[in-house]
Amino acid sequence: MVSESGGGMNVEIPQRRPRENPDDDQVQPFQVDALDVRGRIVRLGPALSGVLAHHSYPDPVARLVAEATTLGVLLGSTLKDAGRFILQTQTDGPVDMIVVDVTAPDRVRAYARFDEEKLKAASAKGAPNSAGLIGRGTLAMTIEPAGDQNRYQGVVALEGEGLESAAHRYFTQSEQIPTRLRIAVGEEMHAGSASTSWRAGGVLAQFLPREGGRAIQMDLDPGDAPEGFQRHEISEDDAWIEAQSLVETIEDHELLDPSLSSEQLLWRLFNERGVRVFDQQKVTAHCTCSRERVASLLKGFPADDRTEMIEEGKVAVTCEFCGRQYRFQPSEIDV
After folding, report:
1. Torsion sign (Cα): 287, 290, 295, 300
2. Paired residues of 113 in beta bridges
3. Bridge partners of 327?
4. Residue pair 198/24 in contact by the 8 Å Cβ criterion
5. Among the ranges 37-41, 170-174, 230-234, which has the highest mean pLDDT value?
6. Can you tell me the distance from the alpha carbon of 88 to that of 112, in angstroms, rounded to the nearest whole number?
7. Closest C-alpha to 183, from 85, 41, 54, 294
8. Distance in angstroms (rounded) separating the CA atoms of residues 266 and 268
9. What span, in angstroms and rounded, lies between the C-alpha atoms of 144 and 275?
10. What burial class does residue 150 get, using C-beta atoms within 10 Å of its C-beta: 0-12 exposed, 13-18 middle, 19+ buried?
């Protein structure tokens, strides 16, 4: 394994064994030159607990938010400066909205909205999986770069599938980058206590050869094509077939095990090919709300709407992400 700095000049150091120290709440970028693969691993522990701490989600919803948070960090961790990545679902399932907000370089927050009656109905049929909780609708991924760069949004339909499958389809349709994702979520028991906490881990690998023709993928399923339609078949590159096969061998417990470092996991996967690792990136649960921001938001509402918000002489606003409540005198928001 070779380690490189993430700075402007990469300085190669002698090969070494993978680090064994735990690396919760870190994103580990990596590259496998022999397979033209780049990617990153994320392991979430205390940061995930921080994201969920202010919400009393039922277990199925907490698990889904943990999965969405992991996906958001995997996709948003490439942003530089103070850019933002927002993952949002809007669907007809028991959990009809999920929002994950990643602010570079290291802050994440998330919340979900769910219908208790729909959730009870789904749970009565057995433990609902993420696809059943989400239902059908859309998954939007928004990038807001720092500075004057243009905002970008990609949208993919959710067709009764989980977030992992939807992300694969997004990269096929919108980015046209061969991509393989694995996400795992689980509860951790604490020794000597009946309490538990959520953990999550994920890996993303992308095939980025210098020769663009090697990354061409097969066309999407034509659906109700006329009889006799001949689908254009394209053989996948051998290097990408190998990389996908290796990623698919990862088991959930490997992504969740706090004693298994990301470097050790990468070594298990790619030691025969050689893998380079770069500086890790910290992940912290942090809400960007503030009294000043909320007041500014309220002042943007029409005067009549602000007047209707007054209850018992004050306007109260609760942040959906962190649960913090802000209370204002009407005069503070120009009412």
Report:
1. negative
2. 97
3. 316
4. no
5. 37-41
6. 10
7. 41
8. 5
9. 31
10. exposed
Q: CA 65 to CA 153: how far, in whole Å?
A: 21
Give me the half-sphere count of Cα atoms (radius 13 Å) on the Cβ side of residue 259.
Answer: 1
| CA neighbor of 70 nearest in space, from 56, 53, 51 | 51
Positive or negative, the CA dihedral 15, 19, 20, 24 is negative
**C-alpha 327 chain-centroid distance:** 32
What 3-state class would DSSP assign to 303?
Answer: helix
Hey, what are 279's tokens?
């500086």
For residue 26, the number of C-alpha atoms closer than 13 Å in the C-beta half-sphere is 16
Prediction pTM value: 0.86
Task: Kindly give, in sequence order, each residue whose CB lies less than 8 Å from that of residue 322, ignoring residues fewer than 6 positions away.
Answer: 54, 109, 287, 289
* 182 within 8 A of 247, measured Cβ to Cβ: yes
The burial class, CB within 10 Å (0-12 / 13-18 / 19+), for 19 is middle
pLDDT tens digits along 251-301 = 999 999 999 999 999 999 999 999 999 999 999 999 989 999 999 999 999
Residue linked to tokens 């208790």: 116
Please state, in angstroms and rounded to a whole number, the distance separating the CA atoms of residues 247 and 250: 6
CA atoms within 13 Å, Cβ hemisphere of 197: 16
Reduce the DSSP state of residue 194 to 3 states and report it. coil
Domains plus CATH for the chain?
Answer: 23-210+237-285 (3.55.30.10), 291-333 (3.90.1280.10)
Cβ neighbours for 122, distance < 8 A, ≥ 6 positions apart: 60, 94, 128, 132, 133
Please give the backbone phi and psi of residue 190, each rounded to the nearest 5 degrees, phi first: -105, 130
Pairwise CA distance, residues 136 & 162, whole Å = 10
pLDDT tens-digit map of 117-128: 999 999 888 878
Indicate the pairing of strand 37-44 with strand 179-189: unpaired
Tokens 């999965």 map to which residue?
A: 67
